[in-house]
């Protein structure tokens, strides 16, 4: 392979397979897809050639659900470290959740997060605005001001907490219609999950941890799809995790209700059996469920009931995770392993094609977040070169400590996973080459 550089370069991706289809050469120049030709036909003059035979080319991945922790918990993650992890995972855009400190409930905070993303240069950062002031579930935040701000917020969520008051949820759904926004609900009935530590079921009874019943998720989703229908608004359901939730979304869609839903990579593969280890790495909200639930969410993703995969990347410090289960924080990282988990569970099992992967990890999340003018674009001449180059035949063992994220709470440490993101391009500039992050400002953008 030619020596690779990160500058404003012309790239020829030789013999690559867009969406897993027929091999072509794809030329990236001046930030766009400049040419798509027969293999070997693109001129290599002055270009950096990447030999990409058998590599799959995807539109840059778009995460609708990332926790970046800045402002407030920069010891767990910063906008820079989190978006660097995103780039390593093949993402060119992330939606940054609002449960920071201070909470992203004003135009000032969302603009700050947006600006930090631009400065870091690893990926587009689209801030999510809080639904309620301080995530306290009592008063609506300044949704309109956040929508009109320089951050152009379209996704609103109290994620980490549920908007459980039905009157507030109704008002939020009504309010966001004015600017084509969406409310992304963390569906968790608080009274049914008071003190809950893991999925309620056989395993929770055996290990003696307080259970989080499936109905606590399903009851809120059922209520919210009915509210969305009543108000004629758009609802998005975060990290759906149970078979019953899939059923409700399927029913809501059959009625024409404007609802979308996401599943995380970890809920596609891990089960509550892992709680038997008492290793709090596996403590997450919503909790890991049963094998039957895993099967149901895979079915739901395969048949389109579940629209997208979103990481819910939730970095936490060692102090917050390396402790007794009951005292540990909920959450696991996910940006750097998401595509591999989707490949293992859905592509290598024949349930999704690479074109489907582009849909569930790029095109549809971009559309739900209303950023489809700039992200999740088709791979076509003239389009912005936001692209992810994947080697699906590679296998790698996840190294829990040397990831690009600033936190180490991956549930896939020492797991062997298929697929490797070889390169990521953000408007034609390589943010990752040979699987390694390439800082925009060497020595600055790459710093933790
Ligand atoms: N998923 C988690 O377990 N934790 C998230 C909050 C959330 O997504 O609900 C976090 O912010 O740490
Ligand atoms: Zn959540
Ligand atoms: Zn979350």
UniProtKB/TrEMBL annotation:
Zn(2+) 2 binds at residues 159, 186, 239. Gene3D superfamilies: Metal-dependent hydrolases, Urease, subunit C, domain 1. Pfam families: DHOase (PF12890). GO terms for molecular function: dihydroorotase activity. Its EC number is 3.5.2.3. Keywords: Hydrolase, Metal-binding, Pyrimidine biosynthesis, Zinc. Pathway: Pyrimidine metabolism; UMP biosynthesis via de novo pathway; (S)-dihydroorotate from bicarbonate: step 3/3. InterPro entries: DHOase, DHOase/Allantoinase_Hydrolase, DHOase_cat, Dihydroorotase_CS, Metal-dep_hydrolase_composite, Metal_Hydrolase. Its cofactor is Zn(2+). Binds 2 Zn(2+) ions per subunit. Substrate binds at residues 67-69, 99, 285, 316, 330-331. It comes from the Bacteria. The active site is at residue 312. It catalyses: (S)-dihydroorotate + H2O = N-carbamoyl-L-aspartate + H(+). Coiled coil: none annotated. It is an enzyme of class 3 (hydrolase). Residues 55-242 form the Dihydroorotase catalytic domain. Zn(2+) 1 binds at residues 65, 67, 159, 312. PANTHER family: ALLANTOINASE (PTHR43668:SF2). Belongs to the metallo-dependent hydrolases superfamily. DHOase family. Class I DHOase subfamily. Catalyzes the reversible cyclization of carbamoyl aspartate to dihydroorotate. This is Dihydroorotase.
């Amino acid at each position: 392979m030619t020596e690779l550089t990160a500058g404003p370069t012309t790239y020829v991706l030789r013999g690559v397979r867009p969406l897993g289809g027929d091999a072509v050469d794809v030329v990236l120049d001046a930030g766009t897809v400049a040419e798509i030709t027969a293999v070997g036909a693109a001129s290599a003059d002055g270009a950096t050639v990447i030999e990409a035979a058998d590599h799959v080319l995807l539109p840059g991945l778009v995460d609708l659900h990332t926790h970046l922790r800045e402002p407030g918990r920069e010891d767990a993650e910063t906008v820079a470290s989190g978006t660097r992890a995103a780039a390593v995972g093949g993402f060119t855009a992330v939606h940054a959740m609002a449960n920071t400190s201070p909470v992203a409930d004003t135009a000032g905070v969302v603009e700050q997060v947006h600006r930090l993303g631009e400065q870091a240069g690893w990926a587009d950062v689209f801030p999510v605005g809080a639904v309620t002031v301080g995530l306290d579930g009592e008063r609506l935040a300044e949704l309109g001001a956040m929508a009109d701000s320089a951050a152009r917020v379209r996704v609103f969520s109290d994620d980490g907490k549920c908007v459980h008051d039905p009157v507030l949820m109704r008002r939020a759904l009504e309010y966001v219609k004015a600017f084509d926004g969406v409310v992304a609900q963390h569906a968790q009935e608080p009274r049914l999950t008071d003190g809950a530590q893991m999925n309620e079921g056989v395993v929770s009874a055996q290990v003696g941890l307080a259970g989080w019943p499936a109905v606590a998720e399903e009851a809120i989703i059922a209520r919210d799809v009915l509210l969305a229908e009543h108000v004629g608004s758009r609802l998005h359901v975060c990290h759906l995790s149970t078979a019953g939730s899939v059923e409700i979304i399927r029913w809501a869609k059959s009625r024409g209700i404007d609802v979308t839903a996401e599943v995380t990579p970890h809920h596609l593969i891990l089960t509550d059996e892992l709680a038997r280890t008492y290793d709090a790495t596996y403590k997450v909200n919503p909790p890991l469920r049963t094998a039957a639930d895993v099967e149901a969410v895979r079915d739901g993703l395969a048949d389109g009931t579940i629209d997208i995969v979103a990481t819910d990347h939730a970095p936490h410090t060692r102090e917050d995770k390396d402790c007794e289960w009951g005292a540990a924080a909920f959450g696991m990282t996910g940006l750097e392993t998401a595509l591999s988990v989707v490949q293992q569970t859905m592509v290598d099992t024949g349930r999704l094609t690479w074109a489907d992967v582009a849909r569930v990890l790029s095109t549809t999340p971009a559309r739900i977040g209303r950023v489809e003018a700039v992200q999740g674009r088709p791979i076509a001449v003239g389009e912005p070169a936001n692209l992810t180059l994947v080697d699906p035949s590679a296998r790698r063992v996840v190294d829990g400590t040397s990831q690009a994220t600033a936190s180490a709470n991956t549930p896939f440490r020492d797991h062997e996973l298929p697929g490797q993101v070889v390169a990521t391009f953000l408007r034609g500039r390589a943010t990752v080459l040979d699987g390694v992050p390439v800082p925009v400002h060497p020595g600055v953008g790459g710093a933790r």
